[in-house]
């Protein structure tokens, strides 16, 4: 049973939904929690271990955002995206990003067609971006020009070709996989595109128990298949419900302190000001606000806590910050700066 916590008038930040009909909201959140548990169970039949990775990816989708999955090849990034498409009942497509991929290969193009009566007209041929779940596989292997072709689609959920605007299906999410920059044949993603990803999720090697279970399950005569546990319409409804979850003043203050403290212009810590070249913008605070709500629902809680902010600080902030040259020369890591900021929150 989900308990109503932290929902006094001062803690609701103008959200009157809970005050007007608390029982209805609690019932909706409980029902969503049961459906999300079925989603996690279905994903768990195919993806072994990586509970945090699965959780962060689901948080991204529930928040209505896009996710960047970072890890070396062979850790199941592509498998995770394919599984989520099946479990959530989304129209999923895959684009393998390569150095010769062109923007038109993603968003589509217009072709000149001639009718039987001799009349000629242009017809738009939609690209693979016209789907509900786009897997941009190894996105950093394509040129920056091609990477930028996703910008408008990710932010505005539409594309413009030859002066005509074409809306994308709803919901629309990009789950991109990326190899570490140190790998050969990769290009750094532009800062503007990185900021469009709600979370950056790092995928590491599975532990021994998870790898053992994976070996037994995937090398036999038959593999387990994911079972659909949600529909596109239900996902859209869940995203709307997430935005109605109340957020306490303490959580709101923690988000603002964390994000503003990560900017060299606003940080009160002289060491952080010395280390950072630039910090996260307001989109990072928006991402934390939504993601903390989604994480609370996944954990069976009605309202997020400061612990949710701390747990999501790394995936929300690390791709939205940059160290200056002197800090990089000293071996400082962005993750270390974020941990310092988290410690300052108490």
TrEMBL record:
Domain of life: Bacteria
Residues of the AAA+ ATPase domain: 63-207
Single GO MF annotation: ATP binding
CDD domains according to UniProt: AAA
InterPro entries: AAA+_ATPase, ATPase_AAA-3, CbbQ/NirQ/NorQ/GpvN, ChlI/MoxR_AAA_lid, P-loop_NTPase
Pfam family, one: AAA_lid_2
SMART domains, per the entry: AAA
Alphabetically ordered keywords of this record: ATP-binding, Nucleotide-binding
Family statement drawn from the similarity comment of this UniProt entry: Belongs to the MoxR family.
PANTHER family associated with the record: MAGNESIUM-CHELATASE SUBUNIT CHLD, MOXR FAMILY PROTEIN
Identification of the protein by name: MoxR family ATPase
Species annotation: Dankookia rubra
């Amino acid at each position: 049973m989900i308990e109503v916590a932290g929902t006094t008038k001062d803690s609701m930040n103008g959200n009157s939904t809970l005050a007007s009909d608390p029982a209805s909201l609690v019932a909706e959140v409980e029902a969503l929690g049961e459906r999300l548990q079925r989603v996690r169970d279905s994903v768990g039949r195919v993806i072994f271990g990586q509970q945090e990775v699965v959780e962060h990816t689901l948080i991204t989708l529930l928040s209505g955002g896009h996710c960047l999955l970072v890890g070396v090849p062979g850790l199941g990034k592509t498998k995770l995206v394919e599984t989520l498409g099946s479990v959530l009942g989304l129209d999923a497509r895959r684009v393998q990003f390569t150095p010769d991929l062109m923007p038109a290969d993603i968003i589509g193009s217009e072709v000149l067609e001639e009718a039987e009566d001799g009349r000629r007209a242009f017809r738009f041929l939609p690209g693979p971006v016209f789907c509900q779940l786009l897997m941009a596989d190894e996105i950093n292997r394509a040129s920056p020009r091609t990477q930028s072709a996703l910008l408008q689609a990710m932010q505005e959920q539409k594309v413009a070709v030859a002066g005509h605007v074409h809306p994308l299906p709803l919901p629309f999410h990009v789950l991109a996989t990326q190899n570490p920059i140190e790998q050969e044949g990769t290009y750094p993603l532009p800062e503007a595109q990185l900021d469009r990803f709600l979370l950056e999720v790092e995928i590491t090697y599975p532990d021994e128990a998870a790898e053992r279970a994976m070996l037994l399950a995937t090398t036999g005569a038959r593999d387990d298949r994911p079972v659909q546990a949600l529909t596109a319409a239900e996902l859209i409804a869940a995203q709307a419900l997430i935005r109605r979850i109340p957020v306490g003043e303490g959580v709101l203050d923690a988000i603002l302190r964390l994000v503003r403290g990560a900017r060299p212009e606003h940080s009160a810590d002289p060491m952080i000001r010395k280390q950072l070249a630039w910090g996260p913008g307001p989109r990072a605070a928006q991402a934390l606000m939504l993601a903390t709500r989604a994480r609370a629902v996944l954990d069976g809680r009605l309202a997020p806590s400061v612990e949710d902010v701390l747990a999501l600080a790394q995936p929300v902030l690390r791709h939205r910050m940059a160290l200056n040259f002197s800090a990089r020369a000293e071996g400082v890591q962005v993750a270390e700066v974020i941990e310092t900021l988290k410690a300052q929150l108490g």
